[in-house]
UniProtKB/TrEMBL annotation:
Belongs to the LysR transcriptional regulatory family. Pfam families: HTH_1, LysR_substrate. This is LysR family transcriptional regulator. Gene3D superfamilies: Periplasmic binding protein-like II (3.40.190.10), Winged helix-like DNA-binding domain superfamily/Winged helix DNA-binding domain (1.10.10.10). Signal peptide: none annotated. The lineage of its organism: Bacteria, Pseudomonadati, Pseudomonadota, Alphaproteobacteria, Rhodospirillales. One of its GO terms (biological process) is DNA-templated transcription. It comes from Thalassospira marina. Keywords: DNA-binding, Transcription, Transcription regulation.
Amino acid sequence: MSLPPLATLRAFEAAARHLSFKKAASELLVTPTAISHQVRLLEETLGVRLFVRKPRQVLLTPAGQELFPVLRDGFGEFARVIDRLKQHKAQRRLTVSVLPSFAAKWLLPRLSRFQTAHPDIHLSLHTSVEVVEIGGAIADAAIRYGAGPYHGLVAQTLFFENFAPMASPALGLQTPDDLQELPLLHLDWAHPDDVTPTWARWFKLAGMRDVALKPGLAFNDDTHAIQAAIAGQGVVLCSMEMTVQERQSGILQQPFGPFIRGHQYQLLHTGKGAHQAEIAAFGNWLADEIARDGGNGALSPDMAPQP
């Protein structure tokens, strides 16, 4: 199949759409004579007349009326596809590895604001409790919880996590003494250390000695522990920063301290290679979100965490 030269088809389509060689020439940034020449070349190639030429007007012949909508739709589709390809090429990409609990409880409720602020950045979240290589095939950056240090990586401190007893209002939790009568929910930490929030540590900070810890439901995912507390299955020693929505909506109550300070969340990256601009934009947005919370995610000024 042999097609006429593309320039002749483009000239004809523009002239047919405007019914004017002059307007077609203005659109294509050529002279009316050039449009007339291209159209005549197309007519000679096809062996049919496409326009009826009058002194101040051109009209489509039946052959021209048959050809025009095909070219109009074809060039329109070309333009749409090319625009999509340009946008895809221009789109900036960033993949961040995060803990599933951090993604579900802190990041996702806020993420629409990042997308509004940076519509050109395609953000992908890689959720896993496993540590992945940063700057490799999986993630460009990561948000990690722990003491560090993270050798060879650039670290942006986000906030410390703070823990306190929380329960469903249905349990009627009002004073620390109530904890001795209510079931306690436990978290099995993958890598416990001296900072790990436990009920034994909390009771010691609260000055409650000789409290017999009762066995109860234990979870290795704090999002499940939060859901169990919401369901009224017990009192959870839980992160203030990860329960902002639950406390604001009233499905969890946090009536007293003390507050145990845990480790900090940090945004980590290599500081080199691709996506540095996207990482900087993400880091600045995280800082803005933390500032919205008063600088540490969820604590009010009178909530003094215990070291």
